[in-house]
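[step 3/7] inverse_fold.run input=structure_tokens len=80
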């Protein structure tokens, strides 16, 4: 008889373009300083810009890359 595995818990993705400091600090390795730098360097086209723009060192970026997204705002026409 095969054992059933529980499905993995869904990870809530954090949008680095809109999240507040409190939400950003829920990410591993992100404290007050890192959250402030993420906010100060917005907007991001992709999450990899956290590393390429030196917003986060490589280690913290690797820790959060699977938990963040860089959503783009909808064009004004699409909002209607």
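[step 3/7] decode complete -> sequence:
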């Amino acid at each position: 008889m095969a054992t059933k595995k529980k499905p993995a818990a869904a990870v809530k993705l954090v949008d680095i373009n809109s999240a507040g400091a409190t939400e950003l600090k829920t990410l591993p390795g992100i404290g007050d300083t890192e959250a402030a730098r993420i906010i100060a360097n917005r907007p991001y086209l992709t999450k990899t810009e956290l590393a390429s723009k030196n917003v986060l060192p490589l280690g913290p970026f690797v820790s959060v890359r699977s938990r963040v997204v860089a959503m783009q705002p909808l064009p004004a026409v699409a909002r209607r």
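[step 4/7] annotate
Residues 25 and 32 are 7 Å apart (CA to CA).
The chain has a mean pLDDT of 90.
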